[in-house]
From TrEMBL:
GO terms for biological process: gamma-aminobutyric acid catabolic process. This is 4-aminobutyrate aminotransferase. The keyword Transferase applies. GO terms for molecular function: 4-aminobutyrate:2-oxoglutarate transaminase activity; pyridoxal phosphate binding. Its EC number is 2.6.1.19.
């Protein structure tokens, strides 16, 4: 059963509200014609037009994963319009993938420029034929938000391919260290790799964590540990899985238990690193700052710092998967900024996609491959998306949307604490978490069926919200989500919870 936060914790939550009061940003600055409220016009969602369109799509493509069929031309800002004309407050944002909003005029203007149109229509094979403007586009865009200590960038097509690219770079760098400075591949390396045998195809591994999600390609899927439906029937690499802490909430009421749980997981993590040295050495460790698809699982900054330092101690590269947590969603541009890593302790790789719209990996120069074509493919990303990311980064900075998201998250957490302690929610909400992580908030319901019922009723009431894990509801709003949207969300949640 949900327990109200302590007075001390509640006081901490109130402080950022003054920050919010000092900020004047409104989503109407960027999206002046954004709706003010949801408007549901059909008895069910999806409505008849949406159902018919899904059936038409199903004639050539599986439609069983469809939630709704949107009308993107009519959607505005934080509001998603479906094919039936239902206007929904979208706090899921295409699985955390929309940074600023739908049909933002500044982005539409970019799309009408000759620069953008020509970048879209003359799509190059970036690794071999980059545009003359490529260095300028990247240096004035994606590199301006490079994580501390990482000045190298490889652009890719999606989050899965970003993680796969990081895996490959880590394996190459690991083997380069084993060979020694300047050593070339042996004849045996070159011949054995063509047979998928060692030493050219070494028995190395990537360590990931229980409940982690890193993608659906072969390597990234082998590191994914969230839902069995993603993995079943697919051959996988024999890579190790470490436990991730199962924290108890509210945090301030379970300090000793949570410290013991993190200590247990760190000890098991190190044991796996040591044991695998004999059979399948761990070349890289990959971790999400918040294990998102697996149920929004959190751990302390001290836990993540220890993971990073132990990985280095045992010779493993450290990959931070910020595909879902990056680009301001947690109230800092990169979620791992909250860990308090010192200079020289930065991750070796940070992967990104989703809210950036572009995708790729930031890394250190020493992890560049020792020969061309080793981390390479035809497209290596998309200039159109690099331009889109550059414009969004400019807007995020111009309107200070990361700080805005931090303040909005504090306000929202405070209101949700009050709501979850009210009679409408009594006994229905468990494990409210994410306070201090911007709008990256979540909670559990008693059963998976209750979670699904809640999500469906919220949609019918005009709010598009999402789930993760077995019974978790997660918030993933856009960076323009603000005080007015908080009011709509909390009002709708109170009505839905009161009717469950």
């Amino acid at each position: 059963m949900f327990v109200r936060a302590s007075t001390r914790a509640a006081a901490r939550l109130q402080q950022p509200r003054h920050v919010l009061a000092r900020r004047t940003f409104s989503s109407l600055e960027l999206i002046p014609d954004e709706p003010s409220r949801p408007n549901v016009v059909t008895g069910a969602i999806p409505g008849p037009k949406g159902v018919a369109l899904s059936k038409e799509i199903d004639t050539f493509q599986d439609s069983r994963t469809h939630v709704i069929v949107p009308d993107y031309e009519q959607s505005k800002g934080n509001y998603l319009v479906d094919a039936d004309g239902n206007v929904l407050l979208d706090v899921f944002a295409q699985i955390s993938s929309i940074a600023i909003g739908y049909n933002v005029p500044s982005l539409l203007e970019l799309g009408r420029t000759d620069e953008f149109i020509k970048a879209a229509l003359n799509r190059p094979a970036l690794g071999s034929f980059p545009p003359a403007q490529w260095a300028e586009w990247i240096k004035t865009g994606l590199l301006t938000v490079a994580p501390k200590g990482l000045d190298q960038l490889v652009t890719t097509l999606c989050g899965s391919s970003a993680n796969e690219t990081a895996f490959k770079a880590a394996f190459m760098a690991y083997r380069a260290k084993e060979r020694g400075a300047g050593a070339d591949f042996s004849k045996e390396d070159m011949e054995s790799c063509m047979l998928n045998q060692s030493p050219g195809s070494p028995q190395l591994s990537v360590l990931s964590f229980k409940s982690g999600f890193h993608g659906r390609l072969f390597g990234s899927l082998s590191a994914t540990r969230s839902k069995a439906i993603h993995k079943v029937d697919i051959p996988a690499f024999d890579w190790p899985c470490a436990p991730f802490p199962e924290l108890k909430y509210p945090l301030e009421e379970h300090v000793a238990e949570n410290e013991a749980e993190e200590k247990r997981c760190l000890e098991e993590f190190e044991r796996i690193l040591i044991d695998n040295k004999r059979t399948r050495p761990v070349a890289a460790v990959i971790i999400e700052p918040i294990l998102s698809e697996g149920g929004d699982k959190h751990a302390s900054p001290a836990f993540f710092r220890s993971l990073r330092l132990k990985a280095r101690e045992h010779g493993a590269f450290f990959i931070v998967d910020e595909v879902q947590t990056g680009v301001g969603a947690t109230g800092t541009f990169w979620a791992h900024e909250k860990w308090g890593l010192k200079e020289g302790e930065e991750p070796d790789f940070v992967t990104f996609s989703k809210k950036m719209q572009a995708a790729g990996i930031y890394h250190k120069k020493e992890t560049r491959p020792n020969a061309p074509y080793r981390n390479y493919n035809t497209w290596m990303g998309d200039p159109m998306r690099a331009l889109q990311a550059r414009k969004m980064i400019q807007l995020i900075k111009e309107h200070d949307l990361v700080s805005h998201t931090a303040a909005t998250g504090a306000l929202l957490a405070s209101k949700l604490n009050t709501l979850f302690a009210s009679p409408a929610a009594s006994g229905k909400i468990l494990n409210f978490r994410g306070e201090g992580s911007g709008t990256f908030l979540s909670w559990d319901l008693e059963t998976p069926a209750k979670r699904d019922e809640f999500v469906a009723k919220m949609r019918k009431a005009g709010v598009q919200i999402g789930g993760c894990g077995e019974r978790t509801v997660r918030l993933r709003p856009m960076l323009t989500f603000g005080e007015s949207h908080v009011g709509v969300l909390c009002e709708t949640m109170e009505k839905v919870l009161g009717g469950m």
